[in-house]
Amino acid sequence: MQELEYKKYEKIGNWDFSDIKYTTKQDSNWNFYKEISRYSSKNSLILDLGTGGGEKVLSQMPDVGMIIATDFSPKMIETANINKKNYPNKKIKFVTMDNLNMKFPDNLFDIITARHTIIDAKQIYNCLANNGILIIEGVDKYDCWELKKLFNRGQSFNDNISISQKDYEDLKKAGFSKINIQEIVQYEYYKTENDLLALLLKTPILDNFSELDISNNTHKNQIETNLFNKYISEHTTDKGIELKRVLYGIVAKK
Question: Is the pTM higher than 0.90?
Fold first, then answer.
């Protein structure tokens, strides 16, 4: 999955969802950025993994001593540095790095955050200071499940256990002393079918979901329009096109 996501995001070079029109109704109180604010102070050193184009870390992260924000895509980091110009007072440095090959000394960070990205629990544990905190928001197996069932594929569709359970087991094995996990259920309502289409083209929710490859004029991996239209027909509400998201939040203490 990591290699597929790398190629996808390296080609896009931007993971900004601000042009996609949708509203959200959340059934859970857990909030990734509120948790970060809860555990951080003005002197905290934070490592943010999988930062993408930096839009969220720049606009939502609290003001702390310093934030190091990483992504494995150089184009994403290039985008993040462009976005950084709009936040001249933010104490943040963007760095290209693979989450599975972390390049930091042991016991360095007060807080490590990871939102919608892969992690290596043991490497994170080693990089955290004593009593340091790891905060995760992840996409779980049953995210967008009705859509995945219709297309008979998708992110974690064939996994034997949920991603949240795997993360929990990996964190426990790595040595974290206290691990709290929270299911997050939310409903997204997309204004038009083009807004939902834009989401699916920018994310790995469905595997091999892409538009016509103009470079060689082939129909390889072209969108299955009939299935997409079927989903639109069955899930259009007065609020928009409904997409049920199933996420999870974790706060773990070293």
Answer: no
